[in-house]
Specification:
25% of the residues lie in helices and 22% in strands. It is an alpha/beta fold.
Length: 390
């Protein structure tokens, strides 16, 4: 395999060395991009609950040491052989889900799960190696979700890179499109394809759930019911399209699904599970309408436990489906969402609750773990964070 003419780069990275322990800011060496790879200078990154989940995880697929982070925006620094769609200087969004553009799945409108590149935990998808090592010892450092954005530079397969071209979208907004917001909006648009006048229930009002609400509003939903244990989520939810709010602690002896059925006269047209709890997945299904109700599962249960749903209820017309990245094809659909942001159709300001510099990344983890933030934007140079007055 031919190598790029680029040289190794030494830079700072926040490395996870043990489950649940603070990330350590260390110097790493980032190898040049190989064929079909792109080296990216990260401008800003944000934290997603998936980062938090893997940061706490003791066993495989969590790997140590590793560089977490998968929601980011950056600038191409160099490219390997056979890379034609991006060039040094291009603004790009790295994504955990590849789109090779040539396999049967990428060519079909029915799937966004690329079948040409399989995910290899901690490693590059084509050759199963890593591009990171500790500068002091040479010890290999694992990647994460094919992105690893908690480093000043990272190497990403070109199938995992979305070029934004000449988009004037501010970096912190472009950053959000690489995972959470795209997942939620995409689920309402691509997976549910909900019709104007639809009724919707959203279980979990984090970033993904709130993005589902906004995507549902954009599609013309007439009633959007948000379900969350945190009453503080209702105010921001209302600004993004939520019309009703249910706190499971306030339903007395009734289940949430019973309350939703009473509110809607039989259940919602579309129910979205955005938490990753199998019991909530079952409750979301029970909240959907007999005959045509559709439940979309977006949350991830790390234990991969089965979901208990009545077979007779399935036979009465209700359906369940899941989706990665909200069913969107990254290279096709993220630029469309970026344009919707520029056209003020998609509002992202509400999702950014905190901004800070790279040195404060552990504080960002604390805020997310405590449920005190939606998205914390981490500026690698800290300059924009100061400019924002955070």
């Amino acid at each position: 395999m031919e190598q790029s003419t680029a040289k190794p780069i030494r830079c700072r990275a926040a490395v996870s060395k043990a489950p649940g322990q603070p990330l350590e800011m260390v110097e790493v060496e980032v190898a040049p991009p190989r064929a079909h790879e792109v080296r990216v200078k990260i401008v800003c990154t944000s934290l997603c609950h998936t980062d938090l989940t893997f940061w706490r995880m003791k066993d495989f697929p969590a790997m140590y040491p590793s560089i977490l982070g998968h929601e980011a925006v950056g600038v191409v620094e160099s490219v390997g052989d056979h890379v034609e769609e991006v060039a040094p200087g291009d603004t790009v969004v790295p994504v955990f889900l590849p789109q090779c553009g040539g396999c049967a799945d990428c060519l079909s409108p029915r799937s966004n799960i690329c079948s040409a590149l399989s995910y290899r935990p901690g490693l590059m998808p084509r050759d199963g190696t890593t591009r990171f090592s500790l500068a002091a010892t040479g010890e290999p450092v694992h990647g994460f979700l094919s992105v690893s954005s908690f480093a000043e530079y990272t190497v990403v397969d070109v199938a995992h890179v979305v070029r934004l071209g000449g988009s004037a979208l501010p970096p912190e907004k472009a950053c959000l499109l690489s995972c959470g917001v795209s997942t939620g909006v995409g689920a309402a648009w691509k997976v549910a394809a909900l019709e104007p006048g639809s009724t919707v229930a959203v279980f979990g009002m984090g970033t993904v759930g709130l993005a589902v609400a906004q995507g549902s509003k954009m599609r013309g939903a007439k009633r959007i019911i948000g379900v969350d244990l945190n009453p503080d989520k209702f105010e921001i939810g209302k600004r993004l399209g939520v019309t009703d709010f249910i706190n499971p602690n306030d339903t007395g002896e009734k289940t949430v699904s019973q309350v939703i059925k009473e509110m809607t006269g039989g259940g919602v047209d579309y129910s979205f599970e955005c938490i990753g709890s199998t019991s909530v997945m079952a409750e979301a299904f029970e909240s959907s309408r007999t005959g045509w109700g559709k439940t979309i599962i977006l949350g991830t249960d790390t234990a991969a436990a089965p979901v208990s749903i009545s077979s007779s209820a399935i036979k009465r017309g209700r359906s369940v489906t899941g989706a990665l990245l909200g069913g969107i094809k990254p290279k096709d659909d993220i630029p469309v969402l970026a344009q919707k942001c520029l056209d003020k159709e998609l509002e992202l300001d509400e999702f950014v609750t905190h901004r800070m510099g790279f040195d404060d990344i552990n504080r960002a983890f604390d805020l997310l773990a405590q449920g005190k933030c939606l998205r914390c934007i981490i500026w690698m140079d800290g300059a924009e964070q100061k400019k924002a007055g955070a």
